[in-house]
Design the sequence.
């Protein structure tokens, strides 16, 4: 079946540190891949996406590359800020046209000044 | 610029009570979804709709019913609430497209506690 696995959190970093949140997936064919972010008390916001192999999604200094060979979509940022503290969800939409998202369990990021 | 609006934002129910959560979107989206979010489990799909008058089961549909009488509204009902339904509920919508590239837009959630 289709599934998404994220690294367990929480991840605690100092401001300006480098961030990597690992995400791997299992799916048939070529799913579309997404990262969503959830700030405290809010809903989910799309952070970035990639729809085919070797695509790189980027937004607000975050990047992730669709790696078909390793079935991965790791999230990276070169220098995190306190305002990046949130829960990050990796997700995929498998083949089919209903657009159902399949989420990983989420990774909590806490950035300390 | 409302996007996806969920009401209510918070609710406490007693076991056995019923209630309806309302989701409204003003983006003319065809597809709408209801998820529940539980600690350590991410978001799980309860029901979804691909258009007005249509609904389908998701991953965890038991104990819930839905209706989509109008394109802009998607209602989630609990007929007889149980403590296991204590969760944060999110509604999402997205436009119909030719592929799977369109992201879903989420509401701010409804925090529901069943005592």
Sequence:
């Amino acid at each position: 079946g289709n599934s998404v696995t994220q690294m367990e959190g929480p991840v605690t970093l100092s401001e300006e540190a480098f961030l990597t949140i690992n995400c791997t997936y299992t799916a048939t064919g070529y799913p579309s891949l997404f990262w969503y972010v959830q700030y405290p008390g809010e809903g989910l916001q799309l952070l970035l996406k990639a729809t085919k192999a070797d695509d790189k999604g980027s937004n607000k200094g975050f990047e992730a590359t669709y790696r078909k060979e390793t079935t991965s979509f790791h999230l990276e940022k070169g220098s995190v800020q306190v305002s990046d503290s949130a829960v990050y969800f990796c997700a995929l939409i498998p083949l089919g046209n209903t657009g159902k998202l399949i989420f990983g369990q989420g990774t909590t990021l806490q950035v300390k000044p | 610029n409302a996007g996806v609006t969920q009401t209510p934002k918070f609710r406490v129910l007693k076991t056995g009570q019923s209630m309806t959560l309302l989701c409204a979107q003003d983006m003319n989206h065809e597809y709408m979804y209801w998820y529940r979010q539980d600690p350590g489990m991410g978001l799980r799909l309860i029901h979804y709709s691909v258009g007005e008058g249509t609904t389908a089961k998701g991953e965890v549909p038991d104990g819930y019913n839905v209706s989509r009488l109008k394109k802009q509204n998607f209602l989630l009902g609990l007929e007889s609430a149980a403590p296991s339904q204590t969760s944060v509920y999110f509604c999402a919508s997205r436009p119909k497209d030719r592929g799977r590239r369109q992201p879903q837009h989420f509401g701010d959630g409804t925090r529901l506690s069943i005592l």
User: Anything to note?
Assistant: Chain B is about 0% helix and 50% strand. The mean pLDDT of chain B is 92.
